[in-house]
Amino acid sequence: MKSLILTAIAAIALFISACNSNSTSDKNKSADSTSVHTAGTTYTCPMHPEVVSDKPGKCPKCKMDLVAKEQKEDHSGHQH
User: Fold this and answer.
1) CA separation for the pair 22, 18 (Å, rounded)
2) For the purposes of burial, counting CB atoms within 10 Å of the CB of 57, is it exposed (0-12), middle (13-18) or buried (19 or more)?
3) Which end of the chain has less neighbouring CB within 10 Å, N or C?
4) What is the 3-state secondary structure (H, E, C) of 9-45?
5) Strand pairing class (67-68; 43-44)
6) CA-CA distances (angstroms) from residue 76 to 10, 64, 70, 79?
7) pLDDT (average), residues 52-71
């Protein structure tokens, strides 16, 4: 019985360790992929559009990556 409990604890510890190392590498990937952003770009959560930031990051509600919000171009001065 003791060996079963110890085995379960070891398995849980291994699982937690693996999850933590994956989240660290995911953070590095998202920092690399979003490192290029222009001034005036805003970022928002795909699931929570009320969450808006001036820099890339994670949504505080669901932890999804914020995505660049499309800027609407002003075509009022153009003649088509």
Assistant:
1) 6
2) middle
3) C
4) HHHHHHHHHHHHHHHHHHHHHHHHHCCCCCCCCCEEC
5) antiparallel
6) 65, 35, 18, 8
7) 91
Strand partners, 56: none
Predicted local distance difference test score (pLDDT) of residue 74: 54
Reported pTM: 0.42
Q: Are 38 and 70 in contact (CB under 8 A)?
A: no
Nearest C-alpha neighbor of 19 from the set 30, 7, 11: 11
**What are the structure tokens assigned to 31, written together?**
């920092």
- Nearest-angstrom CA–CA distance, 43 and 50: 10
Which one-letter amino acid corresponds to residue 28?
N
Residue type, 33: S
Per-residue pLDDT tens over the stretch 14-55: 777 777 665 444 444 444 444 455 567 899 999 999 999 999
